From TrEMBL:
<dbReference type="InterPro" id="IPR029052">
    <property type="entry name" value="Metallo-depent_PP-like"/>
</dbReference>
<dbReference type="InterPro" id="IPR051693">
    <property type="entry name" value="UPF0046_metallophosphoest"/>
</dbReference>
<feature type="domain" description="Calcineurin-like phosphoesterase">
    <location>
        <begin position="20"/>
        <end position="304"/>
    </location>
</feature>
<protein>
    <recommendedName>
        <fullName>Calcineurin-like phosphoesterase domain-containing protein</fullName>
    </recommendedName>
</protein>
<comment type="similarity">
    <text>Belongs to the UPF0046 family.</text>
</comment>
<dbReference type="GO" id="GO:0016787">
    <property type="term" value="F:hydrolase activity"/>
</dbReference>
<dbReference type="Pfam" id="PF00149">
    <property type="entry name" value="Metallophos"/>
</dbReference>
<dbReference type="InterPro" id="IPR004843">
    <property type="entry name" value="Calcineurin-like_PHP"/>
</dbReference>
Length: 333
């Protein structure tokens, strides 16, 4: 069963407390074609609180199982469902028979950027084609039954760079597009911003800003933000990515590591040869000191999918392309 992180007013939860389930994914790139909706529930299933000592606040169905839980499955095992037209499946996936991954049920589905690649790949997407990428995004989000779908762009969304919020939102009809903007659902204040710090040797330049220009964007984030959605991680938090030299010059890098002494990282105190912190220090300062959201959702760093907590704030890197793992949060109101 997928791990579910509980946030909000968990300690004071009662049988009548309202829970909003948030499902987080990021950095799907072309893997979005392997993501499918959860299986439709048959019959009338009552949703209630668990009486279990281990999970007293869980939301369960009449059999006592997690009401929202779905497991990954293969295309072969669900071929009948595809023929019924219940799930979108591209012809390329029908032929390749790759594994298919279900996105868990919930109230809100959040995608924190890098839906696209920054170059043409297999003739599927060209990120310089604005109309095309938005249409593919609409097709993707329309598959899912979540009440609200939220999207924040990443550095691979080059086609969205320079486009006004309303220009994108008018065309992205299947999701809420957050671009330095807020959205409130069931009293939960979401805020989204797409920026990532400048790094050398990257071919994806959408929404990338140098230090002096990225900091003002973070300062614009309202303090009354409950769920912050960015593409960039904060510095030192789930942000360890492969160094350019490690990726492009692996033999030379291994040779250097074999002769040079290992040193502890100034940021995290750990030793991680071949890896660098990709996060933004200005974002970290704003999040930990001023904004203090209950939940911070991001991606960008494919190697660091995970969930952690710092100073009472829950952080989620849901980069999907490597780990193939979305994250689930129950927000207790």
């Amino acid at each position: 069963m997928e791990h579910i992180t509980r946030i909000g007013h968990v300690d004071g939860a009662t049988a009548t407390s309202k829970v909003i389930r948030i499902v987080h994914i990021s950095d799907t790139h072309l893997a979005h074609n392997s993501l499918t909706p959860p299986r439709p529930l048959s019959g009338n299933i009552s949703i209630r609180r668990s009486n279990s000592v281990e999970t007293p606040n869980a939301v369960v169905d009449e059999s006592g199982k997690d009401a929202f839980f779905n497991r990954s499955t293969s295309i072969e095992s669900r071929e009948d469902e595809f023929h019924k037209g219940g799930v979108f499946l591209s012809s390329a996936l029908r032929k390749s028979r790759v594994n298919n991954y279900e996105v868990p049920c919930g109230n809100v589905l959040v995608h924190s950027g890098d839906f696209d690649w920054s170059r043409q790949s297999g003739g599927l997407l060209r990120s310089d084609n604005f109309e095309e990428i938005v249409q593919v995004m609409n097709d993707f989000f329309d598959r899912f039954p979540h009440k609200v779908k939220i999207f924040v762009a990443g550095n691979h969304e080059v086609s969205l760079e320079g486009k006004k919020l309303l220009t994108v939102q008018e065309r992205l009809t299947s999701a809420v597009y957050l671009y330095n903007s807020s959205f409130t659902y069931e009293g939960i204040n979401f805020y989204g911003a797409p920026y990532t710090p400048f790094r050398y040797m990257t071919n994806a330049r959408g929404f990338i800003r140098r230090a002096g220009k990225i900091a003002p964007h973070w300062r614009d984030i309202p303090t009354r933000t409950d769920v912050l959605v960015t593409h960039s991680p904060p510095y030192g938090i789930l942000d360890l990515g492969t160094k350019w030299t490690t990726r492009k010059l692996p033999k030379l890098t291994r040779a250097l590591h074999s002769v040079l002494p290992e040193t502890d990282c100034d940021a995290c105190g750990a030793t991680h040869p071949g890896l660098d912190h990709w996060g933004c220090p200005h974002l970290k300062e704003e999040v930990l000191i001023r904004i203090k959201p209950k939940l911070h959702l991001f991606g960008h760093v494919h190697e660091c999918n995970g969930v952690t907590t710092r100073k009472g704030i829950t952080f989620s890197n849901a980069a999907f392309v490597n780990a193939k793992r979305p994250h689930i949060f129950d927000y207790y109101l």
